[in-house]
Structures are given as structure tokens and as C-alpha cells.
Give the backbone structure.
Amino acid sequence: MTINIEPIHLERPNFAGLLSGVSVANGISKEDATEIEDGMNHFAVLVLRNQQITDDQQCAFSEYFGPLEQATGDLDQSATRRLSMKVNDISNLDENGAVMAIDDRRSLFSLGNRLWHSDSSFKQTPAKYSLLSARDIPASGGITQFADMRAAWDALAPEMQVECMDKICDHSQLYSRGLLGFAEWTDAEIAFNQPVPQRLVRRHAGSGRLSLYLSAHAGAIDGQPMPEARIFLRELNEHATQHQFIYSHEWQPNDLVIWDNRATMHRATRYDSEEVRDLHRTTVTDSAPTLQQPV
């Protein structure tokens, strides 16, 4: 089959494309992977329909785009973990496949996915791509929204761009979950989630475009008083998540969505927590910490 990518929305023809001509279950060639990566450099979000796949098939496909992260951002690192350490469990299910109680610690932690964020920005080397496979979805709600951080950068006033350019932000899950009042951390979790520095402005290696690098995990700016830093970041987040920068993905069974964390933010939306929502995410790590990447 021939690979084809069509814009999903005419309002945002350069953000979110529908990718056809690919069977993840049957595998792809290196040439296919290069074509898909070229599409990602342009769109930043690609949607593949009707991809009924296993975790092993998803991992094999994902590895064409770089090494996979270990799922160390999850709370459940136990031997009874439902999925392998190569796969992030984006679900409301416990280790036995039952829907978790709303007051389950893991369920409360996962509410942070409803904040605008970039995956793994709390790691020294953050994420490049995320690939999310819809295995079981609720009857309504639970959509995923994406914000185009390249377009948000382009729309900033020139003086604001200058102000942003050299800023370094500290990212941590302690901060993003703290926004929700989640404060029950073990000593090991606190040690793992110490803040890491990330550039506020990044140049995308594939497209050459500048973009904002924002996330709910960003809670401080080097050299600025905390209140000043947080109001500045809040204003940028409000700017970057305006309607004109957003694509909202309404999930269908067996969708696979790929997005570039270097050029987007995303968030999940509400759904009936008594219904099953089971999505599996593989995450491709970036080439280096953002401070080592040229702007």
C-alpha cells in the first residue's frame, strides 16, 4: 500500500494528519518509517485508524523512530504491574483488569493527564514521540486535545518572543500533581521527581521551526521569583491553548495516534470513570536533554 497523509481539519491544515497505507501489525520498512517521520515533521500529530495491535507490535513499530523510554513516570512499578515496563498504562484499570475506585491512589495520580502537558518533560532527556493505542474506550468523553506549540510561538508578539528565548524552566511531577492537591509521596518518589531543567523555547530538529516548550510539569523559571515565574508560565499556557491552536481527537476503537512532544502539548478530557478506558502508550525518547540541543 502507498502511504498517504491528509490534513484532518481545513482550519488547521498543517496540524494533525490522517495517515493511511500503514499496517502496524504487519510491520513497516525503514523507507516507510522515514516517510512517516517526514509527515510528523510537518504535522506533529498523525492518526492511524483500524490498527488492531498487540503491545509487542506497538513496541516494534515505535522503535523505528528511536529507543523506547521505560515507563518510570507511572506510580505502579511493582511486580504485579498490568503492562510491561515498555508500555505506559493510560487506563483506569488495576492489575486484575478491573476498573479502579475513584479514590485509588493510582487513579488520583492519573487525573494529572487532564492538565495540559508534554510527556516526560520531567525527565532529563524528555520524550520525542508518544504513540497511544485505543484498546477499549468509553461511550463518550475521554477525548484527547492537542495544542500546536509551533503556531503558538509564531503568534506571540516579537517582544514576548525575545523575553521567552533564553529562559530555563524546572519541570517535575511533584509540581503538576501538586496543582491538583496530590501530596502523598514516598521518599523514593520524591527523590525520583526532583526538578529537571528544560528550555522554554526549542528549535525542532526535523522542521527547523521554533516552538514553546510548556507543560503542567513546569513550575519555576531559573533566576525569577516564584510568583513572577508562575504567572508568566500561566499566561503563556493560556495563550498556547487557545481554540485556534487546538485539535481535539475523538477516539475510535483501534485508533493509534502519534504526536511529537517537542512541538505539542496535550491533555485528556472527562469521561464516566465507571466505564473502561484502556489505552496503551509507547514513548520514544529524544536525542539529548533540551539544554544540549541547539536553538
Summary: The longest strand covers residues 127-136.
